[in-house]
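S.,

As promised, the nicotinamide-adenine-dinucleotide run. Input:
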Amino acid sequence: MRIGCPKEIKNHEYRVGLTPESARELIADGNEVWIESGAGLGIGATDAEYVDAGAKIVDGPDPIFAECEMVVKVKEPQAVERAKLREGQILYTYLHLAPDPEQTNDLVKSGVTAIAYETVTGPRGSLPLLKPMSQVAGRMSIQAGANALQKEHGGRGVLLGGVPGVLPGKVVVIGGGVVGFNAAQMAVGLGGDVEILDRDPEVLEKVGTFFEARASTRFSNKTNLEDAVRQADLVIGAVLIPGAAAPKLITRELLSEMKPGAVLVDVAIDQGGCFETSRATTHADPTYTVDGIVHYCVANMPGAVARTSTYALNNVTLPHALRMARNGWKEAMRRDPHLAEGLNVHAGKVTYKAVADELGHEY
Ligand code: NAD
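Predicted complex:
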């Protein structure tokens, strides 16, 4: 199969659909790989590295959209890219169609076969192609929070790990799923005094067993949550209620009872945020202060560590790409119902029920 990877054009997107290493694997499996010149520069991968891997470098995105059977990307296609998609072509990328009627209509009109990373499933209802981004965001949340705790960033001047003779910072992680677990790992690694709150007894058991005495756990009810937040130097918001907006767990009123200069990192901001005072920010201007409490609410945290994020994403997307190239997408989906869950649009129809229902498309 001829597989193409254009340069991402969404504002501030530095990731790339295929690393040179992934291109090499696809080529070793008998495929041809075309890469748009400069596509890898955002992660420090030069055209020469792709050429060494056996790929062909093409100028601009047009040859890829015109001649490749599968297009591998990171972000949803932008309007100019959607205009280039062709009937029968496979588009393999993050799509997030439910809130995006315009994109959905364009994909339907194009006749493309669109496979969305975010709806490919794994065992026990997991979303393995989303997981690496939650791992990245979770780990980054502590880095971002530690930074914001420094005086020059408005924080209370606390070093998370403390020093001998001085207590460490108190880190409260709300939600012990993928983001929360990874945040807790980093906070424990830095020597912080870490507490994890969740509502799911199985999650509490899992994190409790993993961290043993290195972190404490508490059931997330109003009383426990407010008590933990009042003591915190750094709070990580890492909750998710699938299919719903994040619940507002910290009210503006509660901010006044927190330590001045404490930091809130709202990782759940992409689902509306789990603090009442959260509003989405960007990497260019990531923090703001409300009632003396520093807020960090960047909605696309993994974008700042594009290289790590790209490699983590390729680790989970490449195996499916290889199987689709080898067996054709239909046979690959017949053999793997989890991959079949990724099919969102095919031959002029929305093929993912939740998207069809949300946007009023025929299913
Ligand atoms: P997850 O499903 O693995 O974990 C969510 C956890 O929240 C679950 O364990 C659940 O029991 C818990 N929870 C739900 N309600 C709670 C409550 N009231 N109190 C305490 N815990 C509660 O989800 P995840 O992959 O860890 O993602 C968490 C959030 O981070 C999501 O909103 C996701 O979209 C977001 N995210 C943001 C970025 C970013 O760049 N900002 C990147 C990746 C993920």
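Residues 133-134, 137, 174-180, 197-200, 203, 220, 238-241, 246-247, 249, 267-271, 299-302 surround nicotinamide-adenine-dinucleotide (CB under 6 Å). The mean pLDDT is 96.

- D.
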